[in-house]
């Protein structure tokens, strides 16, 4: 989880490869209306996000029911969003990796990527919305400004120690 540009897709792909799991890109499941809003520079509301989060939770439930390992790349900026995602999976079978980096690094990443619907102009609204993992949430906050290998290694170690 993390704001746009924090490295969710890159880290999730690497984690999925290391953990022999499938990576699901949450952005791919946004309804067209949400994508259009973001492309227009309009931040999503909780009401905009709720159906999307419920769809992602259903995907997680289906995959969990089939005992298929899954890494979900999703912003999940608020505790309430993460609660929706975790609602269909036993608490001891989910783990959240929060990717955090300084805003300048994230802006630079967003400016250099192509083909993504999220404009850098929405970063500030995401940073305001972001509520970090709380002590009672099973997960890890990691500095996504580190080299990819270090971020992945920290995440894998935390996931394995929580199992």
- Number of domains as seen in the coordinates: 1
Average pLDDT rating? 91
Which CATH-level-2 architecture?
3-Layer(aba) Sandwich
Overall spatial form: globular
In DSSP terms (H or I, runs of 4 or more residues), the helix count works out at: 7
As a percent range, the share of helical residues equals: 40-55%
> Which residues form runs of ≥5 with pLDDT under 50?
none
Spatial strand order of the main sheet: 1-2
Reading off the top of the CATH hierarchy, the class is best stated as Alpha Beta
Rg for CA atoms = 15 Å
CATH topology: Rossmann fold
- Strand content of the residues, in percent? 5-15%
Instruction: Please provide the count of β strands.
Output: 4
**Amino- and carboxy-terminal Cα gap:** 19 Å
Structural class: mainly alpha
Largest sheet: 2 strands, parallel
CATH superfamily: P-loop containing nucleotide triphosphate hydrolases
Can you write the helix and strand succession as a string? Answer: HEHHEHEHHEH
